[in-house]
């Protein structure tokens, strides 16, 4: 056994002793894969997972990916991967087991939120995630921006989308954060700043850094009626944006209760061999101090059923609300 193997084994043991499913030691290969996924391209099935109540749980399948096409749903409990029970697994162990080379298969034993259990075999593919998609609906005079994840490119792409709309006739904006599993905290603050003129975006608290406030960076985009679409796959950084918009009263949330992931993880050490240590360092709260962890955010306008395209009840409810507000645009208090 090499000195490197001994060091890595000792570090894994220390992290496991913390009994925190979000903290992890990543060897050079694992850390490289993590960095690759943050860039929006990697080989896998295309879903975000977390540990909830000790269970490997799906936050959200990404749109258009093998996971979504195979029927993976938010809230699914992944009980086994290729016949191996996931009991006691850390988040990184689960992620590494599910990912793999393009074209290979992985079989997941899944319990859906309704209690049904299913064996799902998925062929891994090269996953490319464009963080932002936008459309202008000329008939409604409404701009639609869908954010699929918060990476370092997201704020610039959201800004490009917003300012591509014809502002002289724009009646409102729909910001779609459904099935958005989150990402980088700084990207969430930057995106929320497009809609919040001033004030706190998010509060964080942790034993190592105490209480910290992240404020709006200023907003030059018009304060038009704003709807944020949310659901059970809206998590982490996307909950930061939704919670800030809701607390400041600059828009309404439409859809279903969000996932409820309010813990903060940071890489606290990067070793010369390319490995790294990730620890849970704190928790975040909305501007008014509301917790999100395991609670989520409740929509202002609940919509019970889901749909797609022209039959999407979330979008129908959003358009109805914008039409009712168009004569009196929403602004920061």
Short description:
The chain is of the alpha+beta class.
Describe the 3D structure.
By secondary structure, the protein is of the alpha+beta class. The chain has two domains: 126 residues, Pdz3 Domain (Roll); 177 residues, 2-enoyl-CoA Hydratase, Chain A, domain 1 (Alpha-Beta Complex), CATH 3.90.226.10. It contains eight helices and 19 strands. A six-stranded mixed β-sheet has the order 10-11-12-15-16-19, with helices on both faces. Helix 7 links the parallel strand 15 and strand 16. Helix 5 packs parallel to helix 6 and helix 6 packs parallel to helix 7. The longest helix has 14 residues.
Q: Quote the average pLDDT.
A: 91
Q: What is the number of beta strands?
A: 19
Gross geometry: globular
Secondary structure: helix percent: 10-25%
User: What is the CATH domain class of the largest domain?
Assistant: Alpha Beta
Beta fraction: 25-35%
User: Which sequence of strands runs across the widest sheet?
Assistant: 10-11-12-15-16-19
Q: Secondary-structure element sequence? A: HEHEEEHEEHEEEEEHEHEEEHEEEEH
Number of helices: 8
Uncertain residue segments: 329-333
Determine the CATH superfamily of the largest domain.
2-enoyl-CoA Hydratase, Chain A, domain 1
Q: At the third CATH level, what is the topology name of the largest domain? A: 2-enoyl-CoA Hydratase, Chain A, domain 1
Q: Give the termini separation.
A: 63 Å
Indicate the structural class: alpha+beta
Return the CATH architecture of the largest domain.
Answer: Alpha-Beta Complex
Q: Main sheet?
A: 6 strands, mixed
Rg calc: 20 Å
Whole-number count of domains: 2
């Amino acid at each position: 056994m090499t000195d490197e193997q001994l060091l890595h084994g000792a570090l894994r043991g220390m992290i496991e002793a913390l009994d925190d499913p979000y903290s992890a030691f990543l060897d050079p290969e694992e850390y490289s894969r993590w960095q690759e996924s943050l860039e929006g391209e990697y080989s896998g099935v295309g879903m975000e997972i977390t540990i909830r109540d000790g269970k490997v749980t799906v936050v959200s399948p990404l749109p258009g990916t093998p996971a979504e096409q195979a029927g993976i749903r938010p809230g699914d409990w992944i009980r086994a991967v290729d016949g191996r029970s996931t009991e006691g697994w850390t988040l990184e162990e689960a992620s590494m087991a599910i990912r793999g080379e393009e074209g290979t298969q992985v079989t997941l034993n899944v319990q859906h939120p309704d209690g049904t259990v299913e064996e799902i075999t998925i062929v891994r593919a090269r996953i490319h995630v464009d963080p932002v998609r936008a459309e202008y609906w000329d008939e409604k005079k409404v701009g639609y921006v869908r954010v699929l994840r918060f990476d370092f490119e997201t704020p610039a792409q959201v800004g490009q989308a917003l300012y591509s709309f014809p502002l002289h006739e724009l009646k409102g904006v729909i910001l779609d954060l459904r099935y958005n599993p989150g990402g980088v905290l700084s990207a969430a603050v930057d995106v929320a700043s497009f809609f919040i003129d001033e004030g706190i975006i998010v509060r964080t608290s942790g034993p190592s850094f105490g209480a910290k406030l992240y404020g709006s960076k200023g907003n030059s985009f018009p304060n038009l009626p704003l709807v944020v679409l949310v659901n059970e796959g809206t998590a982490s950084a996307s909950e930061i944006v939704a919670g800030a918009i809701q607390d400041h009263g600059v828009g309404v949330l439409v859809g279903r209760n969000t996932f409820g992931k309010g813990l903060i993880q940071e890489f606290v050490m990067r070793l010369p061999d390319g490995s790294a240590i990730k620890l849970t360092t704190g928790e975040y709260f909305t501007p008014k101090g509301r917790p999100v962890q395991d609670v989520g955010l409740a929509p202002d306008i609940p919509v019970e059923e889901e749909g797609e395209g022209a039959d999407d009840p979330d979008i129908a409810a959003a358009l109805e609300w914008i039409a009712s507000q168009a004569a009196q645009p929403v602004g920061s208090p």
